[in-house]
Amino acid sequence: VDVVVDDRLPVREGKLVFVRSAQRNEFWAPLLEKAYAKLHGSYEVMRGGHMNEAFVDFTGGVGEVLYLRQNASGLFSVLRHALAKESLVGATALSDRGEYRTEDGLVKGHAYSVTGTHKVSLGFTRVRLLRLRNPWGRVEWTGAWSDSCPRWDELPTEWRDALLVKKEDGEFWMELQDFLCHFDTVQICSLSPEVLGPSPAGGGWHIHTFQSRWVRGFNSGGSQPGAQTFWTNPQFRLTLLEPDEDEDEEGGWGAAGARGPTQGGHSPRCTVLLSLIQRNRRCLRAQGLTYLTVGFHVFQLLGLWDSSHSRALLPSLLRADRSPFCARRDVSRRCRLRPGHYLVVPSTARAGDEADFTLRVFSERSHTAEVAPELLEVVQGQALPMLGMGQLVKVNVPRKESEAVLPTQALPPSYTPKHCSSCSQVLSPISLGVRARALATGKNIKIATFDKFDEDTSGTMNSYELRLALNAAGFHLNNQLTQALTSRYRDSRLRVDFERFVSCMAQLICFFRHCSQHLDGGEGVICLTHRQWMEAANFS
């Protein structure tokens, strides 16, 4: 995003109010800050946040958070691996009362950079050291392995000269166990090949990026896989076929701070970093809105799921991994998965929450990723059988697709004359004869499907019930068309009443019937002249 700014900056008594350099002739930082404030709406909305938000914004990389525990097996290996790939690494010591300095020289509530790792030997003991830097450029750790610690004298001269820099520059060494006692999280930003150049140290990442949105009443299905609406969430298929090279003896970590799923032998694993970002939420702070609680589930697929019968198996998929669900802009997880096919389902914690999001997939070895085929986009549970009550009006649809059917029978007593008024609304002057033949059987009109899927007998359908009804009626529509229909026929309460449902079914039947007359060849593609397209548009 290009942001244009001038050099009029907020000052108080002749001094810059916010970001400023110690050097009076260094001016790029406040200009960059102004551009960032303009992008999000104000300086005020920039208050607070997490280190990884800055990492990601300044580099375009993928951020992940490791929540530290005292028994943090594998952390040292993860940090060394990340730094070898030139990732940005930071650590925070949380505080409930702002920033303050401790007796051992650390600043609680402050962010530090992790700039290096090293193993040294003291007799028969191997010590794992981390190098940290205070961004202030001063105020350093005074405990074990600090600049003035006598333990350095026990090391060979060449090691001491290579590692130790005795000056107040904000950088210092710290033993891993001390680090775990004083810090709460590690934040890693893995950089893309575009940032690092053609040959980054340690090899590059393979990347896929998807832009999507959760829409209330359509595909914002919540975070519980057992819920009926969960499988309406956006879905993305991931294929991992090339396992990583052998790991070292310390194993790996998941992004939630636990060991990755490597138990049970040395089966080959693929490292994949999944990042879910809420877009454009910070600028909504002025409206009293903040980040939604979001996350994602990863399910293992059996094969490529090309059959329509695979829909019925969605709820029984084995969950291979999941991210934490938290109210952060960027929720990420480093997964260690066996080679195979997976389904990634991002969701909000609550059904009905709306937001734009970006899903990014980083893997160490090559992978394929795509929006899940439309057959995976539909409903939970066994596809309901076609209703056989009364007469059926059959409609030809593109080759290799099932027939769309409209079950008809007498109106039930529960429907008042108001429902019959839908006849005059649906049977518009345009294509009156076609629509009448599609709907009318004798003197009565009935959409048996409506009764079948109006589960709460409210006289209306929600968008999920509409999906089920259209599917049972034989309309295997793609996700984009289903969303368009839902948006068109629902009312302000996101409900579809009987009249709207009749109109929707009639429109679909007539449109498929009309278009089937213009199929060209066996590819399911129609070719229309301008006049034919105008005729078809009258059905939509």
From TrEMBL:
Q: Which UniProt keywords apply?
A: Calcium, Hydrolase, Metal-binding, Protease, Thiol protease
GO BP of this protein: proteolysis
Cross-referenced InterPro entries, in alphabetical order?
C2_III, Calpain_cysteine_protease, Calpain_domain_III, Calpain_III, Calpain_III_sf, EF-hand-dom_pair, EF_Hand_1_Ca_BS, EF_hand_dom
Name the CDD domains on file.
Calpain_III, CysPc
Residues annotated as catalytic: H110, N134
PROSITE patterns registered for this protein in UniProt: CALPAIN_CAT, EF_HAND_1, EF_HAND_2
* Cellular component per GO, a single term: cytoplasm
Which Gene Ontology terms cover its molecular function?
calcium ion binding; calcium-dependent cysteine-type endopeptidase activity
Specify the Calpain catalytic domain's residue ranges: 1-192
The residues covered by the EF-hand domain are 441-476
Its domain of life reads Eukaryota
Annotated Pfam families: Calpain_III, Peptidase_C2
**Matching Gene3D superfamilies, A to Z?**
2.60.120.380, Cysteine proteinases, EF-hand
Region Disordered: start and end of each range?
Answer: 245-266
The similarity annotation says: Belongs to the peptidase C2 family.
Q: What is this protein called?
A: Calpain 12
Q: Which organism is it from?
A: Catagonus wagneri
